[in-house]
Amino acid sequence: MSQRYSIKLQKFDLIVIGAGSGLEVANAAYQHGLRVAVVEKDRMGGTCLNNGCIPSKLLIHSADIAETIKRADLFGIKVDGYAIEFEKIVQRVNSITDSDSDGIRNAFEGVDNPKLFPKECKFIGPKTITTVGDDSQDIITAEKILIASGARPRIPNIKGLEGTGYLTSEEALRLKKQPHTLTIIGGGYIACELAHFFGALGTKINIIQRKNVLIPNEDEEVSQKFTEIFSKKYDVYVDYETEYVSRENEPNSDSKFHVIAKKDTSGNSIELVSDQLLIAAGRIPNSDTLDLEKTSVWVGEKGYIKTDKYLETDINGIFALGDIIGRYLFKHNANHEARYVANNILHPDKKVPVNYAAMPHAIFSSPQVAGVGFTEHELKKEGLEYQKSVYSYINTAMGHALEDRDGFVKFLADKTNGKILGCHIIGSEASILIHEVLVAMRADDNGGTIGNITKTVHIHPALSEVVARAAA
Fold first, then answer.
1. In which element (H, E) is residue 424 found?
2. Which of these, 260, 430, 322, lies nearest to 48 by C-alpha position?
3. Strand, helix or coil for residue 172
4. Out of 109, 138, 438, 470, which could bridge 409 as a Cys pair, Cβ 3.0 to 4.6 Å?
5. Residue range 24-59, pLDDT digits in tens
6. Is the pLDDT score of 3 beyond 60?
7. Are 258 and 271 in contact (CB under 8 A)?
8. Where are the alpha helices (DSSP H) in 19-123?
9. DSSP letter (8 states) at residue 167
10. SS3 category, 222
């Protein structure tokens, strides 16, 4: 029997698709007097809050503590055993994120503006959307629309993979039972952060990476050092292509995954057996779920929505931001873009182009990695003149105190005027240390110089001395 729906047509001033960073725009528009609709089929707060950066970093802090305990003997402290309560770790994190997400949804309860449509949606016309839930269908329209529906894990086409019950990052962050052995397909930041989480808590880790280093988008010296460090802790297989996945019998809690991969350079094959299999092979935009062809919005070859410098698509009044446009797939960037979109929607006569200068990123693994600006490879490719400086953590007092013998700070600067072209850090607290460089780079419209750092008095013997010495 076909489903009966009550169909309503409603008109708004602004429709926001996605309840992550898009909520900032929705709130700004509401406060400006616009009637706003928010469409979100999943949990409120977006990927970052529910199955991305926030739960992963909460989990990783437990891993950091476990790693500190393991290294305690280096500092003259003997630890007589400790136990991992894996389910308790995960429950703590989920209770925090679920509470925050539920709090956002509760704020919309009984509110007509902004009005929440907790449903899946698709375009049925240039600026008309249908939302379908369990018991109702709504058709909504607006002159202004913001698409901020994010991205999802990319699943590679591997023979035998489908139906095996593999994990993506979304399921891995809510896993109740700690795997004895975990195989990870992929070698980017998500793979490495989750390898650190599970590995530091005692899981045996296999990483299959098709490229010749882990985190290959980082500066080459950083990715090489990172791969070297990880290879000492985990079983890392670089230059390997996964060819086949199978699982014993029917997928259940006891059946094992079998993964066969072949090395590109030699043709040698390996077979890895593990309790769980994690696919961390990048992300793809959710543009394919929206029937965007009904809007004529331009979508690129990889599925990312194309926008101009004001984050407006080729259709007047339709904007997009965040992971779905693919410029920088970071939550802090989506929040940054949201402020511009809010202005450009509310003040169409005073649009401001997005300033992406000094857009940073960090990887919360062990070691941490942070970077901003050009990599050395990019500078060589562009044929730009530069000078570089590298300074090791261990050559500072705090680096000695931390026993960080692998960490370093690398600066890339213009030869003629000292303008900072890039900075790349691997080591303790890299995600914090990079911020001094960001402030220096945003010091003026032309970009900051090394002098902005060298002229600053640094506290001795704080870890930030390693940045100062690399700059000097």
1. strand 420-426
2. 322
3. helix
4. 470
5. 999 999 999 999 999 999 999 988 888 889 999 999
6. no
7. yes
8. 22-31, 46-51, 53-70, 86-108
9. B
10. helix
Binning pLDDT at 50, 70 and 90, where does residue 1 land?
very low
Residue 286 parent element (H or E) = none
The enclosing H or E element of 397 equals helix 397-402
Instruction: State the distance between the two ends of the chain, measured CA to CA, in whole angstroms.
Output: 75
> How far is 370 from 427, CA to CA, in rounded Å?
9
Distance CA 371, CA 153 (A): 23
- In whole angstroms, how large is the CA radius of gyration of the chain? 24
pLDDT tens for 386-429 read: 999 999 999 999 999 999 999 999 999 999 999 999 999 999 99
- What element of type H or E holds 464? none
- Give the length of the chain: 472
User: What does the pLDDT look like over 72-114, one tens digit per residue?
Assistant: 999 999 999 899 999 999 999 999 999 999 999 999 998 999 9
Q: Are 117 and 140 in contact (CB under 8 A)?
A: yes
Q: How far apart are CA 364 and CA 55, in angstroms?
A: 12
Q: Are strands 6-17 and 136-147 parallel, antiparallel or unpaired?
A: parallel
* Residue carrying structure tokens 């062990």: 366
